[in-house]
Structure formats: structure tokens, C-alpha cells
């Protein structure tokens, strides 16, 4: 009987590179270093906490394992035997904090890799019900390769039934928490069920499957007139605001001051949880394809994995609550590495005074 191998072995890593080269020819240089180190662990059903910069291709961690299982299942005679079972209908769960991120992941998976995916949001589920499609049964029968779902839906009876399905359990290859830094940030505040993700994963999913978390930001341990000079440079800009109300006031201010040479509704747009999904998606599409679209005013939803490679400037109105949030906002721009991107933060006089006092206190403590 032929010996089995692991994906983390030299032979396994070599086969992974071969499969990626075959199935993802647009990646002319193959996997990036952190991808090549992490994906074999996931394929070997190991648990992983992946930290990588925004734009470094973290989504490959849940897309490539699906492609690998599909390729080996389709052509078993071309590959050796592996220690982990190869699934005929591989499926993975990606827990996402916002519906915008979920829809964006699905779109990218289908466009880049041809992977069938579904964003399990209230609107998308309602659409399936209207079409008389039993989406829960489709997921349980592994009709999709990746399902994006929020923590609130995981607590519902439908997901208890899905996770009990023998077909689903035998084909599941991983459970992933995307933008993992919000588990604590949001879980301690307005969305407590984020702190229950682990309970679902450990109690409802097979214990032998890989569980991994992805984030670009994790740390150890527990003035409106000023906008105009920046925006008049006509660089693609994301303006981060704390509240929808503040965003609306910024929108009105800019709308009144924008040159009336063409439709200002193209140049300045809002992105928030209150806007319809179709409007938010249209905003992303315009950023990518329409030179008239320059400014997007967004709440936190935009800073969590919404990709628009054309963005050049990130402006925060007020200091974000945490360093992680600050890094996420800045990470929305400069995804194309040769782009001259900028991060701009507008703070209040009170915040500057507070920061100065902290610095002075630190110097006193260190006797400098």
C-alpha cells in the first residue's frame, strides 16, 4: 500500500504549487510566501491564526483549499494519497461581520476562481424564498463551495439543521472567521454574538476540520473646510465617519461645494448599512470603472474587506476607537503597491491635547 503524504511535506507543497499554477494561471508568480506557508496547514486540518497586510491576498486561504480538493477529487490518478480525506463536494464556512463583505467575497470567488458561493444574508435568503428555493437544503447538500454567514444567523435553527446534515459534515473542510479582530471589538459592544463564533464552531462542526481566523490588524494584549484641498486633487478617496448622521452632513457639505460640471451624485456617494445592497454594490462598481466617481463617504462597514483597488486616499473624520480600526481604514487604499497612497486623519483640538499630555507623561516616567 502506497504511503500517504501531508500537504505540509515537501512533496505536498510542490503539488500545491502545481495545482495553483494549473487552476489560477492569472497568478503568474504563484502563491505568495505567507499563502504558501499557511494553506498547507489548512489543507492538513490544522488550526491557524493568519495575520497579513490588507491587500496581501488573505482570501486565498479559503479559496485555494476548495480548488485543491476539487482538482484532486476530479483527477485522483494524477496525485498521491493524502493523510486527510479528499472531499468530493468540498464546502467551507466563512463567518463575516457585514453583508457587504459577504457579497463582495462571493462576487470575487465567482469572478476570479469560478467557485460557487452564497452570502447568507437576510436579503439573499429572502430572495431564495421568493424564488421557492430551499437554500438551507442546498447548503446542506453542498451545492455551494463556500458560504458566507454572520454570527447572528449561526444561532438560528436553520444552521443547526445544516450542520447536522451528514453530507455537509462529510464534505466540510474548514470554518473561517474573516476580519477576526472584530470578534472582541464588536463582541463586547453592539454585536455580542461575535463572541459566540467559537462556541458554534467547536460544538457544531466536526472537530477534525481546520478552524482559522484571518485579520490584517491585531495588537498584543487585551474640521470640514480642511477636506476641500485634499478632495480638489481629484484622487479616489474614502472618507471614514463614525455615524451615518455625520456621513450625511459631510455628504451635504461636499455636495454643495462640488463644481456643478456634471452629476454630483456620481462624484460623491455614501456607503452604509442603511443603503440598499444594490446601491452599495453599485458604489463599488463605480469606483472601479467610472472615472466620475471620486469620493465615497462610509461607515465602519466599508473598512471591513470591501475591495476597490482604485482608492488612493483614506480620510478619517475623527480618530477611530482602536488601533485595529485605524489600520483597517488606512488599509482600504494603496492595494496596488506602486500607487502613491495617503492616510489622513482629522482630529479635534481636545484629542491632540490629550495625546500631548500622554507623551509628556511618558517622558516624565522615563526621566527623559
Describe the structure.
- The protein is 45% helix and 14% strand.
- With 368 residues, it is α/β, with parallel strands linked by helices.
- It has two domains: 10-215, P-loop containing nucleotide triphosphate hydrolases (Rossmann fold, 3-Layer(aba) Sandwich); 227-352, 3-Layer(aba) Sandwich (Rossmann fold), CATH 3.40.50.
- The strands form two sheets. Strands 1-6-5-2-4-3 form a six-stranded parallel sheet. Strands 8-9-7-10-11 form a five-stranded parallel sheet, with helices on both faces.
- Helix 1 crosses helix 3 and helix 2 (33-43) packs across helix 3 (60-74).
- The model is unreliable at 220-224 (pLDDT under 50).
- GO terms for molecular function: 3'-5' DNA helicase activity; ATP binding; four-way junction helicase activity; hydrolase activity; nucleic acid binding.
- Residues 39-236 form the Helicase ATP-binding domain.
- InterPro entries: DEAD/DEAH_box_helicase_dom, Helicase_ATP-bd, Helicase_C-like, P-loop_NTPase.
- Pfam families: DEAD, Helicase_C.
Q: What brief labels describe this structure?
A:
11 strands; five-stranded parallel sheet; 368 residues; globular; Rossmann fold; alpha/beta
Q: Care to give the gist of this entry?
A:
Pfam families: DEAD, Helicase_C. Belongs to the helicase family. RecQ subfamily. The protein is α/β, with parallel strands linked by helices.
Spatial ordering of strands, largest sheet: 1-6-5-2-4-3
Please tell me the overall pLDDT. 84
Main sheet attributes: strand count, strand direction, barrel closure: 6 strands, parallel
- Looking at CATH, the homologous superfamily of the largest domain is P-loop containing nucleotide triphosphate hydrolases
How many domain units? Answer: 2
- Low-confidence runs of at least 5 consecutive residues: 220-224
EC number: 5.6.2.4
Catalytic activity: Couples ATP hydrolysis with the unwinding of duplex DNA by translocating in the 3'-5' direction
Pfam families: DEAD (PF00270), Helicase_C (PF00271)
Enzyme class: isomerase
